[in-house]
Design brief:
The chain has 3 domains: 229 residues, Galactose-binding domain-like (Jelly Rolls), CATH 2.60.120.260; 112 residues, 2-Layer Sandwich (60s Ribosomal Protein L30, Chain: A), CATH 3.30.1330.60; 111 residues, 60s Ribosomal Protein L30, Chain: A. The strands form 5 sheets. It has a 6-stranded antiparallel beta sheet with strand order 4-5-13-7-11-10, with no helix packed on it. The protein starts with 5 loop residues before the first helix and ends with a strand. The protein is elongated. It is of the alpha+beta class and 495 residues long. The longest helix is centred in the last third of the chain and has 21 residues. The chain contains 9 helices and 21 strands.
């Protein structure tokens, strides 16, 4: 008799209510309606549907709750199917039983798409998982089965459709991957195109029971809980930036020290919950942190190593000063990134290429000392010079000429030594529209940069940017807090 965990069996049966009686209990896909969500071992938090894997940790599948009446439970996963870039995410699983070459199989999906578009889905059958370092479209793989408009058998609620087709297995396949494998633009207006998978089914046309190994395979799938790092056996020498999980370790990725502010916690709640879990588990001498700064900007590659170090050092100081971590338990590593995870020219790539990785491991007394790999010399910490809102015209980007003398007093503090570089970053409070604040912060930073160039500091300016209201230095719940958030920061880097 085949035994399965009760929650998994329940969710398998929930999806099978869609099927005619003769076809039930033979689905080769575990957790077909994505109801059963596991707790990943990297973060000890709900991460992904049981049995389903990402192809790349750089862009993971997302799962969402719904209340549609499609009779396939209340969870669906969403995958990118078209965009202006070549980024894609996929879902993959091991079949509960191998397929048999030459046999006929029926594949059925309940699937939706963005903006009332008709969904297009590709399936790739193989004999192993597919893992990649970067989240690029898998156009080097030829889909085994496709579902298009012609395969729609029934329209459902909320732009979901039932789609199905029958095909002959060309090999004894053991794994299935689903997503969109064609490099194409989004058909949706104003953003990427998505497909929403509510239920998947792969059944043999010839009615047979599940194989004797199905329960054991289901159990092994339930124990595959790496969701944010690649399994070590799948990492190749070409994967230069990939992080792999170590036994007993967890790997946390945060956007930077912004996460430790109230605004950052609200913007990145999942990362914040993982840091909270880490802080709660910490005991001096009981855990070791390896903090790595990742920074890539084609306009400042000469300084990327220093900027990476700065991000890692700032995170280290937060753990020590705010969470009482022992400095002995934290190691800072800086990598010179020559190849970014995402195309540096694509929208939003800067934020996703620049982050802080935190590897948390128990101490291993028996292990030999680590050999430093690409560890850069940590530069001196930068200084920050604040240009307050009062030096600008009210709600304008122009500097106030009446206060140039006060501005010159601040500018005179900038060293003009060799190796000095400046980063100018504009900020606002949270009053007004986001787009307006972002534009105002950038234009104020540009106005200050123009002033510095007139003062002979143009060669020292490395970057000029605006953050809008995204990085408040103080709470925006009082006039004083909002006033102090309206500022331009001059970050002074020294070699």
């Amino acid at each position: 008799m085949i035994k399965m965990r009760l929650p998994t069996l329940f969710h398998l049966m929930t999806g099978m209510l869609l099927l005619p009686p003769a076809a039930r209990a033979q689905n080769l896909l575990a957790n077909p309606s994505f109801e059963d969500v596991n707790v990943c071992i990297e973060y000890y938090a709900p991460c992904a549907p049981v049995g389903w894997e990402n192809v790349s940790p750089a862009l993971k599948m997302q799962y969402n709750y719904h209340t549609y009446k499609n009779k396939a439970g209340h969870q669906y996963i969403n995958l990118v199917s078209g965009s202006v870039r070549d980024e894609r995410n996929y879902a993959q699983t091991r079949l509960l039983c191998p397929m048999r070459k030459g046999k006929r199989y029926r594949i059925m999906a309940i699937v939706g798409a963005t903006q009332r578009l008709e969904p297009e889905v590709d399936f790739y059958l193989s004999k192993d998982y597919v893992f990649r370092e970067n989240a690029h479209v898998l156009n080097d793989l030829k889909p085994t089965v496709t579902l298009r408009k012609a395969q729609i058998t029934k329209p459902l609620e909320k732009n979901f459709y039932r789609m199905e087709t029958v095909f002959t297995a060309e090999d004894d396949f053991t794994h299935l991957l689903v997503g969109r494998m064609e490099l194409r633009q989004s058909r949706a207006s104003g953003g990427p195109e998505f497909i929403f998978l509510d239920y998947l089914e792969l059944v043999p046309e010839e009615q047979t029971d599940l194989c004797a190994d199905a329960a054991a395979i289901m159990d092994s799938l339930a124990h595959r809980r790496l969701r944010h790092t690649l399994p070590g056996q799948h990492v190749t020498r070409q994967m230069t930036n990939v992080r792999t999980a170590k036994n007993g370790c967890m790997d946390v990725e945060i956007p930077g020290t912004d996460l430790f502010t109230a605004v950052g916690r609200a913007r990145y709640p999942l990362a914040a919950s993982r840091i909270d879990s880490l802080v709660q588990r910490y005991q001096p001498g009981g855990l070791r942190l390896r903090i790595t700064g990742y920074f890539f900007d084609p306009a400042s590659q000469r300084f990327d190593s220093a900027l990476s170090a700065r991000e890692a050092i700032d995170a280290r100081e937060v753990f020590i000063n705010d969470f009482a971590f022992s400095p002995r338990d934290i190691k800072v590593v800086t990598l010179q990134i020559s190849t970014p995870r995402y195309d540096a020219a694509s929208p939003g790539a800067k934020a996703r290429n620049n982050f802080v990785g935190i590897e948390v491991c128990p101490p291993d007394i028996s292990a030999p000392p680590e050999t430093p790999v690409a560890v850069a010399e940590i530069p001196p910490p930068p200084d920050t010079l604040l240009i307050p809102d009062v030096l600008f015209k009210f709600d304008r980007h122009e500097l106030n000429p009446a206060l140039f003398s006060s501005l010159d007093t601040l500018v005179d503090k900038i060293p003009r030594a060799e190796g000095t570089t400046l980063a100018l970053i504009g900020h606002t409070d949270n009053a007004g529209a986001d787009d307006y604040n972002l534009e105002l912060s950038l234009r104020r930073a540009e106005a200050l940069a123009a002033y510095l160039r007139k003062k002979g500091l143009g060669d020292y300016i490395l970057t000029v940017s605006g953050e809008g209201e995204k990085r408040p230095a103080h709470p925006n719940d009082s006039p004083e807090g909002r006033r102090r958030n309206r500022r331009v920061e001059i970050i002074i880097y020294k070699q």
